[in-house]
Amino acid sequence: MFNYIGIGTTQFEVNVSNLDGGTVKLQYSTSTAGVWNTISEQNSASTINFFWSPTIAEGIYYLRAVAIDDDGNIDTNPQILPIVIDSTIPKISEISVSPTGTIDCSQLFTIYAKTYDTDVKSMELQYLDPSNNNWVSVSETTNGRLVALIKSTLTPNTVGLQETRWDCIAHGLVQPTTLKFRVVPTDLAGNYSYQPEYSKQIDISFNDTSVPIAVVYNLNDTNVWAQTIYANIKNVLFQYRVASDTNPWINLPVQTSASATYGNIGKIWFSPTDLSVLPAGIYQLRAIATDMFNNVDETKAPVITVVIKVSDTGYKTYYSKKSDSISLGLKDAMFDNNDVTLTYEVVAKEELASPPKLRFLVYDGQNYITKVVST
């Protein structure tokens, strides 16, 4: 196995046993048989540090440390270390983004980078922070960062990375912005350069003019939940009111932190106030989402109706009230490995203003998530 030496100075540590004075030479050769060229010579000690900044041509070489004592005795079997001297800086050949055009901050975007250097061990994605003009590494979600990494195909120390992709979200932006990104490759010798010739750059524009929607739901218990499918939700406000009441909606505490994340950017929000505080009756519930651009429209928030009943013994039950104007029936179900195909029939007593949405509950015995789809 070869050890790679790149541009700059490399430190070598030599351990010497059976000390008897003398010196130690660090030498190199193009073959294990010699001829050996001395790089440096130091007085003998139990541990010696040599420093070498190679000025010889790139290629395969061999290093050895030879101990010579005060009586002129020479180590006849010194350890030989095979090395590769590599002074070529790796280069990104292509960088692109998908989708093209202006990126919606509420959704994922993907950056691709290619290199034709076969000895690249890692590629680092960075963006230029416009507030301080510093380059910032794109990693997993961290407070204060404008862009976060969702997932990447990058595997550190893998040789021959031909293409790497980063799935990201620009969750920290609060206004239309164009950010500069670059990909920095590093090879096995540790060579890299931030110059655009090697670390190719790309400008990406971001905006968000869409209104986020939080879908509220209740699983026939006291808890109230909401689901969002946007990357840059700032908070979710839960509200309720008595059904058919014309009074303003009553606010529950605002949630600024999601309870769970699914599908990379989807989030589950949990109302800190549950239905147990309400008396028997019929209530309407909704959740209003606000994103980092302060886009919000409470009139677009879906509303559900929940019935709270109290038995003669004082036991409360909770269930979602079915619609009087629309019904849904399951006609067929097909199961194939991890896929489930469901066929539904929708019957409406009046003309629908928009296609109905279906909400599915997926439960694995311990955890559950919901998924809302349009018909």
Range of helix content:
under 10%
Q: Remind me, CATH topology of the largest domain? A: Immunoglobulin-like
Main sheet overview: 5 strands, mixed
Please give the count of helices. 0
CA(first)-CA(last) distance: 59 Å
> Strand share of the residues?
over 45%
Query: What is the overall shape?
Result: elongated
Report on the structure:
With 375 residues, the chain is mainly beta. The protein folds into 4 domains: 3-85, Sandwich (Immunoglobulin-like), CATH 2.60.40.10; 94-207, Immunoglobulin-like, CATH 2.60.40; 215-320, Immunoglobulins (Immunoglobulin-like); 326-374, no CATH class. Helices cover 0% and strands 51% of the residues. It is built from no helices and 29 strands. The protein has strands at 3-5, 10-15, 23-29, 37-43, 47-52, 59-68, 80-85, 94-98, 103-104, 109-114, 120-129, 134-137, 148-152, 163-169, 177-187, 201-207, 215-217, 225-228, 233-242, 250-255, 260-262, 266-270, 281-291, 303-310, 316-320, 326-336, 339-348, 357-363, 368-374. The strands form 8 sheets. Strands 1-7-6-3-4 form a 5-stranded mixed β-sheet, with no helix packed on it. Strand 28 (357-363) and strand 29 (368-374) form a beta hairpin. It is elongated, with a radius of gyration of 32 Å.
